Amino acid sequence: MIKKLAKTKNIIALVGLLAIFIIFNFDTKESYDFQNENVCLLAQLDYNVGLENLKPNPQCVVKHNWGFVDRIRHVWTLNKNITATINSIRCKYRKISRVDDFRVKNGQFVELKEGDTILDDVFELECNGTRKKDNASVNFENLFVQVVDTEIERKEERAILADDHGCTPYDVMLISYDSVSRVSFINRLKNTFEFINKSKNFFLLNGYNIVGDGTPAALIPIFTGKTEEELPSGLKNDPNGKYVDEIYPFIWKDLHQKNFTSIYLDDWPHVGAFTYRMRGFKNHATKHYPKHYQLKLKQKIWKNKINDYCNGDTKRHKILIDLLLEFKRLYHNKQSSLAIMHYVENSHDSNDHLHWVDDEIFDFLNNGFKENLFDDTIIFLYSDHGSRFNKFRSSQRYLEERLPFFSVYLPDSFIKNNEQKLINFKNNIAILTSPFDIHATVRDLTCSKKETQSDRERSISLFDKISVYRSCEDIGIPEHFCTCMRNWLSQDINSMETKNVSFFVVESINSITLEKRDLCQKLSLKKIVSSEKLEMANKILFRVSLITSPNNGIYETIIYAGKHKEFEFKSENFSIKSKNDISRIDSYGEQPWCVAKFGSNPGLTLDLRKFCFCFPRRRNK
User: Fold this and answer.
1) If you ran DSSP here, which 8-state letter would residue 455 be given?
2) ∠616-605-178 over CA atoms, to 5°?
3) I need a labelling partner for 482 at 20 to 30 A (CA). Which of 142, 284, 335, 463 fits?
């Protein structure tokens, strides 16, 4: 059994592989038979990675907010540091309301005096006064967000009771960070990982594997148990597309029927999982959904020339993660809850700013445990996927993107009362798992479980038995994203076979953009970077990395030998299963500008960003 990752990095690198042998007592010879396609041997990772380009964390330009709102009574109080230096302070505020996931409504300003109560979850503040030392006029403005429930005072502390089937629900927190691999998390969030590693209640999922490209491919299965392709269209460019809350079976819909409350927090609304390509939510996603805070904050950030990653005197990430604690304090022992946060800003474009949030995550965990807020809460602290674009990815190659960090906290109350579930869970942390299993696990924890028929099916609770023989194919992970160890053999990049495979990849990419050839240039093969070949009993696979011209795009994919009629791209000699299995591993930046503004190309339901190299913009004479 594995309880923890060992402290030494070399042992960490081996633990996922060794755990399989320890837990299941495999015969060594059989386990190393790479032709045994039914056993997934977990990939070995290199944790001895140098940390480059660690940017210094800028100080907030604003040293002190002029006041704050009490998080329990919601009472406005002036900051003593400000009243000591400024006279004649006058403040006003206005409510900020959500219209939809793209627009806000500004209310009318009203006077705000110290001691006034503010029951708006998002409000904008403006103050002015006179500096004591020189009588100069000074001003302050800021945006505030809080968790408000005007009904909560009517509820008394209570025990969360079992349902009619004898199931007692646990609170669940799903806290994720964008583009952070297991290696990057451990190396860059050192204080947080040390906290996790020392806790007997935190466990790492060593076999957790992504199922597709990008954030929606990670979050949609967790939240719905389905893939985007299996659900009705919510795309902006699709004339028949609908709001995602109208068509997606989000798990919180079922939980609301079981008297759960909920909160969903995210940042960067312009690239949100459900707002970039999709139409977003028509109504509130969850009970608490301060999307309007992020929309208004984005407007303020874009007006400022200096980005200090702050809102007022506080880092933007700290504001959001502290909001989760506010939520927990408000409903602790009063109502079952589901809390979700997905944070993007510090890690999406690169992980160079990721270490800035380390102390804030540590403080969140530490304070929550000190206040006993997590006594009956299961915490999933994880990432959607690893880095896809930056240079750091190349040190782990394709594993960097496909093996994100994933940890689970189990409270003492769960461990004490669920002996068999705990046994299953500890066995499963070293077995191939995916976002679909997290969905099933959340359902299990919240007494909304759906029965499974097999220990090899796609979606199984981590507290049920999962077969060690479950494969990527069993659970819908495309071969392109599967990290189970295989006997890939390096190939000569100058061989005719490798060249033919590479030409087929470029032809396939060009076929994707063919219908938009008036917008997207045709690509050609510039250079073959690497080539590998895998021969199995019933199929031959190639994995190539190549560079195209004129966009200098770096692409990576898996090609099947022979013609597979059910695949999207096929010739007499080669086939590629789907466009989703073609990864672009460099940042495309502004290259696809002509197709990147979703909603401006009605009928273009394909996401062409990684494939399209737009013709130059026409300049006005």
Assistant:
1) T
2) 85
3) 463
What residues contact 425, with CB distance under 8 A and at least 6 apart? 203, 408, 410, 462, 463
Question: Positive or negative CA dihedral for 592, 597, 598, 601?
Answer: negative
Cα of 510 vs its chain's centroid, Å: 30
What is the 8-class DSSP label of residue 208? B
Assign 534 to helix, strand or coil.
strand
C-alpha Rg value of the chain to the nearest Å: 26
Across 461-481, average pLDDT: 93
Tokens at residue 411, please? 């409270």
C-alpha of 5 from chain center: 22
Q: In 3D, which of 590, 592, 611 has the Cα closest to residue 601?
A: 592
Supply angle C-alpha 190, 194, 197, rounded to 5. 135
Alpha-carbon distance of 90 to 129, in angstroms, equals: 6
Give the whole-angstrom CA distance, residue 424 versus residue 212. 26
CA 162 to chain centre: 32
pLDDT grade for 391, boundaries at 50, 70 and 90: low
Nearest CA-CA partner of 560 in 504, 490, 608, 507: 504
Backbone angles phi, psi at 373, to 5 degrees: -75, -20
Helical segments of 339-392, H only: 358-370
Centroid of chain to Cα 362: 19
Q: Is the distance from CB of 189 to CB of 354 less than 8 angstroms? A: yes
Q: Distances from the Cα of 9 to the Cαs of 44, 49, 175, 267, in angstroms?
A: 12, 10, 25, 32
User: 370: which 2 tokens?
Assistant: 């000190």
Higher-confidence position of 25 and 215: 215
Higher pLDDT, 157 or 490: 490
CB 160 within 8 A of CB 168: yes
Give Cα 571 to chain centroid, integer Å: 36
**Max Cα separation, the chain?**
84
Start-to-end CA distance of the chain, whole Å, equals 70
Query: Residue 242 is encoded by which pair of tokens?
Result: 């609908």
Report which secondary-structure segment, H or E, holds 191: helix 190-198
CA-to-CA distance for 436 and 546, rounded, in angstroms?
Answer: 31
Residue with tokens 């990430």: 317
Q: Tell me the C-alpha to C-alpha distance, in Å, between residue 445 and each of 73, 174, 460, 462, 466.
A: 32, 13, 12, 10, 17
Q: How confident is the model at residue 4 (pLDDT cuts 50, 70, 90)?
A: very low
pLDDT digits (tens, 9 = 90+) for 217-266: 999 999 999 999 999 999 998 889 999 999 999 999 999 999 999 999 99
Residue 240: alpha-carbon gap to chain centroid: 27
CA 171 from chain centre, in angstroms, equals 20
Please, is 385 exposed, middle or buried when counting C-beta atoms within 10 Å of its C-beta (0-12, 13-18, 19+)? buried
Size of the chain in residues = 621
Query: Which of 45-49, 89-93, 108-112, 311-315 shows the lowest per-residue confidence on average (mean pLDDT)?
Result: 45-49
Which tokens go with 24?
């299941």
The DSSP-derived string for 14-38 is: HHHHHHHHHHH---HHHHT-TT-TT
> CA–CA distance from 551 to each of 117, 518, 583 (Å)?
56, 16, 15
CA angle 306, 312, 315 (to 5 degrees): 80
CA distances from 605 to 176, 230, 354, 376 (A): 28, 15, 33, 43
Site of tokens 């990527």: 472
In angstroms, the CA 83 to CA 280 distance is 43
Residue 374 near residue 368, CB atoms below 8 Å: yes
